[in-house]
Structure prediction request, 125 residues.
Amino acid sequence: MSNLTIPGSQSTPEITADWDAGQLSMQGDSYPENSFDLFGPIIDWVERFLADTDKPLRLELRLLYLNTSSIRAVMDIFDTLEEAHQRGRNVAVNWHYDHRNERVAELAEEFKEDCSFPFSIVSYS
Prediction:
């Protein structure tokens, strides 16, 4: 199918979705003026990938800051992954965070508590 690339900006993360690799990557800050405009195509891509393939899907996150609307959008993505996982799909999240950024680590932990699929929180320096 198709890949998705959204360049990052000062207030939005760089997003790359690789259909063949089954990987969605997001890195940077996320405090867009309109999170629906940013995350709508990402959610659509995830839903299409899960509907049109049987391949595993892995999210690689290096998000440094998320505003409230971005947190809701990421929750929607994780809810979609959780539903897919409950149906037997192979999905996983790897959330990488700077070891000095405890706030992001705590946020990732909160997300992980609500997910039964593989969810790794990885510190880097």
Q: What stands out?
A: Residues 106 and 112 are 10 Å apart (CA to CA).
